[in-house]
Amino acid sequence: MKKSTDFKSKINFSNYILGKVFVVVLSVLVLALIYKNSFQDINVYSILAGLLLISSLGYKSTNYLSSSTRNLSLIDQLEFALLFTLVFEIIVEISGNSLFPLSYILLPVIVLGLGWHAAGLSFVIISVLQITKFQSTSLASQIVILLISTLVLGYLLKGNKIVWGSNIFKKNTDKNIAVQSILSGNIANGEEDSDNLKALRADINNTLEILSNLIQSHSILFYMKMDDGLYAIADFISENEDSIDKGQRVSFRSGYLGWVLKTKTPVLITSIKNVRQNLIYYTKDIPVRSLYAAPLLMKLEKNTPESKREVIGILIIDSMDKNVFGDKEKLIVSLISDRIGEIIDRFQLSEQAKLSTQELNSFYDFTQKLNSTDSVDAVMDHILDTLGDSIEADFAGISEFNDEEGVSTLTRISYKDKSHIEGNEIPYTDTLTWLVHEGKNYFNTDNLSARTKYKSIFGKEIDFALGVKNMKSVLIYPIIEKIPGEQDEDTSLFGSVVLGRNDRVPFDDSEIGLARIICSEAAKFIKTSLGHQKVKELSLRDGLTGLYNYRHFQEMLDYTIAHSDRYDEKASLILIDVDNLKEVNDSYGHQAGDSILSFVGKVLVESLRKIDVQARYGGDEFAVILPNTNKRGSLVVAQKIKSSIKNMPFKFKGDEINITLSIGISTYPDNAPDGEILVERADRALYESKNQGKDKLVHYQDISLEELGS
Fold first, then answer.
1. CB neighbours (10 Å) of residue 99?
2. What is the DSSP letter of 456?
3. pLDDT of residue 408
4. Distance (Å, rounded) from C-alpha 268 to C-alpha 294?
């Protein structure tokens, strides 16, 4: 298999670069027009540039508001500041510089919304334009006032924002909450906490209360890492609550706490030096004599070595007394840190898939079905049934990936009249299914036709045959044990689930969350099941031919009949007898007969679909189960088997031996109401083919009443 790739960056990187280049070029053009006073003396160029500028700002704002995250990168912050500033400068030029005082308000607002770096860029642009374009006696005072208003008002606004957002456990706008989003302090105000968030806050506070009761302390603080890399106080207990700097955001680059982050190990201090740096959480001097701080490591990374796990918080406990933190206290703090990590871990998992009552019931039913089966095929059926019933979609399908052969096969589809397409191999090139398999991450779009690359789901031919080439909304989720984006290179992938809608109705976060937990649970079961199957497989195979034995044939026949009943499909059974094998044994010995049986078994495997079941029925007889195959299809398959035997001459010790087959066929439910009678009818057809002179194929339905009575 080819090396895994990050398909998101592969598809979007060029568009990202082009977008940034466009903004830079447009900004240079607007600045040039401002210097030429083109916006004051309106012309075609200024109108066009202004429209492009406003359109760009509107487009970026719309994308930001509709995105699932409210966290802007530094580049995006600077880009927004640049566009806002240029729009403001155009307004200033049109007004003849009379509206320049509005910049005293604009820059503090940029500090509040986009940060100090963005405000610094805006200040430079406004100042340079003011100095080079508008010469006045009050120019120096205007720039000084602009600088002071930016610093003072910006600090006041930014400081208040930190206070308002310091409680990091408020409701986030993202349904699929990642850990960094949980920790974000950029929170909308006025929203009520969800039940999960209330429970999270209460659990952490109760945990700190327990710690306070167990250890003699003055203050206990829990710092948590924000999405911007700074640390904020998430919760605390202190005898001097008014002295705690509740709204601070700090970066621990040095001191005792910096050492905790750097080494990811606890630190015990009994003689505190540089109080201002190390007791940064107090607003005034507190005579603390002992301090113990422990890192909180990401609990979702259990398989990652501790040295490589991310620090997402620090638990601090201090005391007015010296030498109060011994081995017992260290152990207690360690246990409390683990408990807080488990609380956050549990919160994240519950938020990642906010399922409705119906969806929770569907997941419960799915897990019950998993516990009652030991078949991977049955698991795949359960996946399709559960997601098909729970998520509204016009199409549902499953592709299975064979890691040993490096091929992906379409094994299940929801279109009953197209089920003959099942078993087709999916092309590697430019298909979304393979893109998901390689990246081991899910794919979701509500406008498939707008894509310029990777527009095909299963390959052009299969898409056309299924009638899904005009599908608008598509969700492809990998059947993989770990959460997409967090797995390692050795993570096993068993296939993917494909859901499609004809209209542009996007799959929402709850639907994606349900697909995630269904696929994850299924992958865990399949992984365990495959391990058992490798051992079980030895007992299911015929030692000579490598085909399934008679016992497993009966199990697969029962499964196929049940599957046909569920999906209202037909199924056919072929019984094959090798003609004149006794004569071959008499002439060449039993070794020759065994070689012929092994040869026929190999031809069957090479001639049939992956979903077909080939078995050695006993002695010189073989059986083939053909799921979703009617009479006509079974005759085509039987003739293909006969032709393959005929076109592949068999030689034994230099002598060519002519092999012919007698074949009998029956179809469910046309010729039999159950599996037992289906076998009887196929055996009756086989008897008729041999009765007609061997090397014949007969379908039970074609036997006359007179022949049946004989």
1. 13
2. B
3. 83
4. 9
